[in-house]
Amino acid sequence: MAITEEKLNVLLIEHDAAFARYVGEMLGQARELSADLFPVEDLQQGLAALAADHFDVVMMDMSLPDGAGLANVGLVRADAPQLPVIVAGDSADENVALEAVHAGAHDYLVKSQLTPGWLERSLQYAIERHRMDRALLEAEQKYHSVFDHLMEGIFRTTPDGHYLMANAALARIYGYAAPEELIASLTDISRKLYVEEERRDEFIGLMQEHDTLTGFESQVYRKDGTTIWISENCRAVRDAKGRLLYYEGTVVDTTKQREAEAKLRHSEALYHSLVETLPQNVFRKNLMLRFTFCNQKFCETLGRPLEEIVGKTDFDFFPRELAEKYQSDDRRVLETGQPYETVEEHRPPGGGTIYVQVVKTPLRESDGRILGLQAIFWDITRQRMAEEEIRKANAALAQSQRELQAKNLQMEDDLKMAREIQLTMLPQQYPAFPRSGPGSESALQFTHRYLPTGSVGGDFFTISALSETQAGVFLCDVAGHGVRSGLVTAMIRAVVEEIKPLATNPGEFLTKLNCDLCSILKHADSPLLTTAFYLVADWKTGVMRYANAGHPKPLHVRRTAGQVIPLANASGKSQPALGLLEGTTYRSSEILFSPGDLVMLYTDGLVEGQNLKGELYSTQMLLGAIQRRLQLPAPRLFDDLLQEVLAFTEDAAFADDVCLVGMDVAGPK
User: What DSSP designation does 502 have?
Assistant: First the structure.
C-alpha cells in the first residue's frame, strides 16, 4: 500500500537534464505511489521553488555547480525543515552515504544503481523516517517545555566553575530574575556561590573520583546576600575518549523542601520517557516471524519486558485468529517486498479491543535481500470512535433535515394559502359612480398595483362606495412583510368593516380605528408600526376630506394645472401612526378637486429603494418622475413608476411591500 493516497510533489534539484528525465520516467513506473516531478537545474532555483510552492520531498544532486557539496543539505533543511531530503551522487562509497545522512539527508542514492523500485522505496522510507524524526523533535520540544517549568534547578558547568546552562528554577532558587542573569553574574562558583569556598574543591574531588554524586548539600549565597541550603546531584559528561566535557545536575532548595531525591527520580524518568523513546510502537521480526527487537512503548503495550518478547511470535501474545491475521500481513510484506499499511484490530493482553494504524516495511541487506520486516503502529481507537460518532450524528442530522424540509414544505403550502386568502381581502372590483352606470363611465376611476415582497404582505387597501356620490379610499402599511404583519392587516380589515358607520368622517374613522387597534395589540410583546391614510371624495361637489396617521403624503396630480402636490394636514403637523397612542384624536383636512385630477396613494416601499452607492429613491425623485408623466393614464403611470424605481436600484425586486392606489376624477357623464 502506498505511503499516502495523495499524489506526492517531488522537487528534483539536478543539473544533469538526462538524469532528471530518467528520474521522471522511474516515477512514472512507480507501483505504490503517485508523484509529480518538479525539476530545477541549480540550488538557487531549488530554494526559490521551496519558497514559492508546496512539496512533499526534495531530491538533490550532491554536486550542484552553484552548491557546496553536502553543505547544500543544510541549506535546504534550513529553508524547508518540514521536508525529507534525499541526496543522489555518483559515488558508491558507504562513507559518502554516511556523511550525507550526518549532513541531514534521509537517504543517499547511487545514480548508477538507481532503479524504479529503489527510488520508490527511498521516497517512502525517507518520508516515513522524516515523520519519525518530527515525532522525536516534538518529544524533545515537550521535554524542553518541562525543563523550563520544573521546580528543581538544573545546571551545566565547566570544571573551572563557569555556568554553561541554567534553567529558570535555578535562577529563582538563587534569587536571579532569569537564567541569563545568573550565568553572567556567577562567573566563579567557588568564591561567589558557596559560603564555604572549599565545598567546590570537595565537589570537584568527588566528581573526579566517581563521576557522579548525589545529595551533595551546601550552604550558598543568593543574589541578595542571604544564604540557603541546597542539595546537588551531578554527573560528569565525557566524550568518546573519556575526556571531561562538563558537569550537569540538579539543585533543590532544601531550606524549605527535603524531598530532592524523589523529585530528581521523577525528573529523570520524565527525561527518559520524552527523549529516549518514541510515542509509537516499533518492532522487528525475522524471516521466521519471530520478534528480534521492540521499543519500550511496545513492551508497555504487551506488558512484558524486552527479554520476554524477543524470540517469541504473535501466537505467544495474541488470540489465534489475530495472530494468524498479523502473520498473514507479515508474509505479504516478505513475499512482495512492498510496504503494507492497514488498520488492525488489536487486543493487548489483559485489555480490551483497540484499533491501530499499522505500517509494515521489509528489512533488507545491503545487497537487497530481505532479512525480515519492521513495523510501526499507533493507537487510533479514539479517532475510530469519533468517526463513528460523527457518522451517527450525520445520520441524525440528515433525518432532522428531512423532517425540517417536510415542515418547510407544509409551511410553504400554508403561506401560499395565506397569500391567496390575503389577496381575496383586496378589492376584486371597483365601485362605479353613480352605481347604476357602467364602470367604464364612472365619475371616479380607480387603479391599484400591489407587490408584496413575501408570501404574505403588510399592505392593505379598500375602496368603498359610501353613497351615490361619495367614495372612501383606505390604505394602510403594517411594518414588516411576514406572517405577523399579514395577521395585523387581517385584523385591520375586520375593524374597518365594523366601523363603517363612521366612514364618512376620515378623522373620526381613524380615531376609532386607532382606539380599537390599541386595545387589540396592547398585550403584544412589541407594537407593530401601522401607518394609514383615509379619504372621502364627493365627485359631485368636488370636495375631498382626508386624515393621515403617519403615512407618506398622497399626491394630488392636477393635470390641467401641471402640478403634483403632496396632501398635507390642514394643521401643518403630522399625526402618529396607528396602535401606538390610545388617546390620539385624528383631524380631517379638506381640499377641492377637479375633473382630470388624479389622487395617488402609496406605501413607503416605493421610496425606500437603494442603489449600489447607498442612495435612496427619494420623494423628490418620485415627484419629478410623475411630473414627467403628468398626462399618462393612471395604469400606465403606475407601471412606468415601478419600472423606474427598479432601474434605479439595479435590482429585480423591491425590498419592502409596495402598494399604489389611484383615483382618477373623470367628472360626471
Answer: G
